[in-house]
Write a structure and sequence with these properties.
CATH class: Alpha Beta
Strand content: 5-15%
Distance between the termini: 48 Å
CATH topology: TIM Barrel
Shape: globular
Order of helices and strands: HHHHEEEEHEHEHEHHHHHEHEHEHEHE
Strand order of the largest sheet: 4-11-10-9-8-7-6-5
Helix content: 40-55%
Number of strands: 12
Structural class: alpha/beta
């Protein structure tokens, strides 16, 4: 990375700065693919705004000399309670793609999550990092593919499996329709100027190896493994018959820690525990599926109470500050996940961009622990937060 690029990253001091930098680096269809949500994007906005309903109550005159952010999540010893959520097709946003994100996570001692629709394979990620790693499974109509993916993860030494349950049909993402976002990106009269204005991205896209959804490409007929064919194939293969019995079968096939992602109500959380889930991930898919669904932070406490310590509870959605992580931990979360923040970092500067995002968020978490008088994660409980009067 050039000295100029490093200077640009050094001028990014929070997630909002990285978002602006990503917007400058990416053609508009790709930026809005990261940035957008479903329908009117209420849930997208509310995921972050809802944190403001919880005030932080500091305790004073406490010894905060030593802080400790270490925690254990899904059987993995981590350096901080912030995980990297699964996101698809990362090489669209930077040529280093998933490997850059995985290496950044490993360097910061936290868990990286690989998506079924990643542009890097299970095996390549396993070869690249020895750090904690999770595979996120989309259930497809062909059970043979699902079983194969689970077995490949076991063989590659992945630490945990996550079943995502809120995408049996893709959400209505109108920003993509307006910008002409296709897979792969296509030049249209509307998008030509946006791509033309980003020559560095275009050069990297045209000179890098062909993009594939690397974990399922071999399942497509010979000659049709272009990413456009794979995208159509995947969207047509989401299994609308996915139910609790299917989830239980998947859990039985996987012997390690197992999470169900997309839980938004207490009853479903209890059922997840009942089929053997090690963790429930409270998530509305970043506001990209059902618009009007609650923000994860709004339902977190009731899900924590329903689980009653029988499984970990991970919050995914809207985290942009270290103080958001503290609020979630106070309401009972084991840890939080981020997706868009690290994608903004990836687009802004590859692995170095992701690492700076993680460095900044870790520093915020540590600083806020000190400022609230709770220097150890174990010091955090519900006394840290108070619901704001409306």
């Amino acid at each position: 990375m050039s000295a100029l690029a490093h200077r640009h990253l050094a001028r990014c001091h929070n997630v909002r700065d990285f978002r602006r930098r990503a917007r400058r680096k990416l053609p508009a269809p790709l930026f809005h693919y990261i940035d957008g949500g479903a329908d009117d994007e209420f849930s997208l906005r509310n995921n972050t705004a809802a944190f403001d309903h919880y005030r932080l109550i500091p305790r004073i005159l406490r010894d905060v000399t030593r802080t400790d952010l270490r925690t254990r999540v899904l059987g993995c010893e981590l350096e901080m309670p912030l995980l990297l959520a699964p996101t698809g097709m990362s090489r669209f946003f930077h040529h280093q793609g998933e490997l850059a994100v995985a290496r950044a996570a490993a360097r910061h001692g936290t868990l990286y999550s690989l998506s079924t629709v990643a542009t890097t394979s299970i095996e390549d990620v396993a070869r690249a990092i020895s750090g904690p790693k999770l595979f996120q499974l989309y259930v497809l109509r062909d059970p043979g593919i699902n079983d194969e993916l689970i077995d490949r993860c076991a063989d590659a030494g992945f630490d945990a499996l996550c079943l995502t349950v809120d995408t049996v049909v893709q959400g209505n993402r109108e920003r993509d329709l307006r910008t002409g976002m296709t897979v792969p990106p296509a030049l249209t009269a509307r998008s030509f100027a946006s791509f033309f204005a980003r020559p560095q991205w275009c050069y990297r896209f045209l000179t890098s190896p062909r993009l594939q959804m690397a974990n399922v490409a071999h399942r497509i007929a010979e000659g049709s493994s272009q990413v456009s064919s794979l995208a159509s194939y995947i969207n047509g293969q989401f299994d609308r018959a996915l139910n609790w019995a299917a989830a239980e079968r998947i859990r039985a096939r996987w012997s390690g820690p197992f999470a169900i992602k997309g839980v938004l109500c207490a009853e479903d959380a209890r059922r997840a525990v009942g089929i053997g889930a090690s963790a429930v991930i409270v998530s509305n898919h970043g506001g990209r599926q059902l618009d009007g669904a609650p923000a994860p932070i709004e339902v977190l406490a009731e899900i924590v109470d329903a689980v009653a310590g029988q499984a970990e509870v991970i919050l995914d959605g809207g985290v942009r500050r270290g103080s958001h992580v503290l609020r979630a931990l106070a309401l009972g979360a084991t840890a939080c996940m981020i997706g868009r923040p690290y994608l903004y970092g990836l687009a802004a500067g590859g692995q170095a961009g992701v690492e700076r995002v993680l460095t900044l968020l870790r520093a915020e978490i540590e600083r806020d622990l000190i400022l609230t008088g709770r220097p150890q994660l174990g010091d955090i409980d519900r006394s840290l937060v108070r619901t704001a009067r409306t």
